[in-house]
Amino acid sequence: MQNLEVSVVEELGRGTSGVVYKVRHLVDGQFYVVKVIDLSQTSSKKQTQALKEVEILKQVNHPHIIRYYNSLIQNQMLYILTEYASGGDLQKKLNFYKHTRRNIEEGQVWSWAYEICLAIKYLHRHKILHRDIKPMNIFLDKENRVKIGDLGLSKVLKKQEINTSTVGTPLYLSPEQIRHQPYGFKVDVWGIGCVIYTLCAFEGPFTGDSLLTLGQNIAMKSPKSLPAKYTPKLVHFINKMLEKNPNDRPSVKEIIDLIPIFVKKMYRKPNLPKDNVQKYDSPINKVIDDCSSIETIFPRFTSQMLDKSINVTLKKSLPLERDSRPMTQVTKRLLVASSDAVRMCTAYVRKRLVQDDKPKTTINDLAKIM
C-alpha cells in the first residue's frame, strides 16, 4: 500500500515516540488516528519498539483494544493507522472531574475496571504483556467504553519466560520492577490497580519528590486511604491488585472474579469496528454517481405509495374537475420529478460535497508538519 488515503484534521499529541494525528479517510469519511514516527531521528531501540507495536497490533482483535487498520513506511517515516476513540483518554476524563470537583460514581469505576480487565485478560491469553497501563493509554469511545491503546512497550512472552527489564511510566511501576526482580503478567494487574485507584483518588497510589523516593514508596509503603464514599468492596478490589508480593497478587482472571455480579450482568459487549478500510472510487465522484438517479438515494416507491402520494398532491394543487381525469404514467413521472424528493436529493448532494472538500493536508505532508 502506497497511500493511506487520509487527510489530517488535527494534531492530538506529541511524545518521545512520535506525533499522533486525528485524520479523516477520503473514501469512507470516517475518523481514524495516524501515529507518525520518524525512524531516522530515533534510536535503534525506539525503532524496534515501533515496529514491534505494529506486529502486536496486527495480532489483536478485541472490542476494548484500539483497532489496527494499516501501516506503511515512506521516506523513513512510519505511519500507523488505527481506530479513533472520540472520548479522549482517561487522563483527560480525570482532569475534568478534578476540575469540577466531582467524584466519579462507583458504578462507572466498576464498569471501566471490568472493561480494562477484559482487555488485559485477552492480551494475557495471547501471551502479550502490556507493561504500560496508565490513564493516558486507556481511551474512551463515543459511548464511554474503554479502548486500551499504546502497545509500544508490550512484549510477547514465550512459555515460562519472565522479563527483568525496567520499562514503563515510573508512577505505575510495580515493586518487582523497582527491585529489578524477574516479573511477568502480574505487573499488568498492578497497573490496573494503580489506574482504578487514580480514578477514585485523582492521584496515583504512590508519589515522591524524586525517583528514589517514589521507588521507595512503591516498594515499601501503603497507599493513602480512598475517599469514604467508595464501598469496602471496591477498596478491597483495589488493594488486592496493589499487593507488594506478586505471588499474593491475583491474576487478571482472578481479579475479574472479584467484580460484582451486577456489573457483569449490565455489561453489553460493544460491536467490533470494521476489519479494514474498504476501497472505493473517489468520494466526490461516488456522490455524483450515486445521485444520478433518485432511486439510488431514496427507497423505490411501490405503486400504492406512489399513487397515494400523487393523489394527495393533486387534491391540494389541482382543480377539482381534474380529480376524475385518468392518471397516466407520463403524468406520474412529471409529478415525481417536481416533488420535494428532488429538492431533498439536491440538498443531500450539496451537503455531501461540502463535507468532501479538498483536504488541507495529506498524509504525504505529515513529515513537513513535524
TrEMBL record:
Catalytic activity: L-seryl-[protein] + ATP = O-phospho-L-seryl-[protein] + ADP + H(+); L-threonyl-[protein] + ATP = O-phospho-L-threonyl-[protein] + ADP + H(+)
GO MF terms, alphabetically ordered: ATP binding; protein serine/threonine kinase activity
Enzyme class: transferase
Limits of the Protein kinase domain: 6-262
Binding residue positions for ATP: 35
Highest rank taxon of the organism: Eukaryota
UniProtKB keywords: ATP-binding, Kinase, Nucleotide-binding, Serine/threonine-protein kinase, Transferase
EC number: 2.7.11.1
Record Gene3D superfamilies: Phosphorylase Kinase, domain 1, Transferase(Phosphotransferase) domain 1
Similarity annotation: Belongs to the protein kinase superfamily.
Xref: PANTHER family: CAMK FAMILY PROTEIN KINASE (PTHR44899), SERINE_THREONINE-PROTEIN KINASE NEK1 (PTHR44899:SF3)
Name of this chain's protein: non-specific serine/threonine protein kinase
Organism annotation: Stentor coeruleus
Upper lineage: Eukaryota, Sar, Alveolata, Ciliophora, Postciliodesmatophora
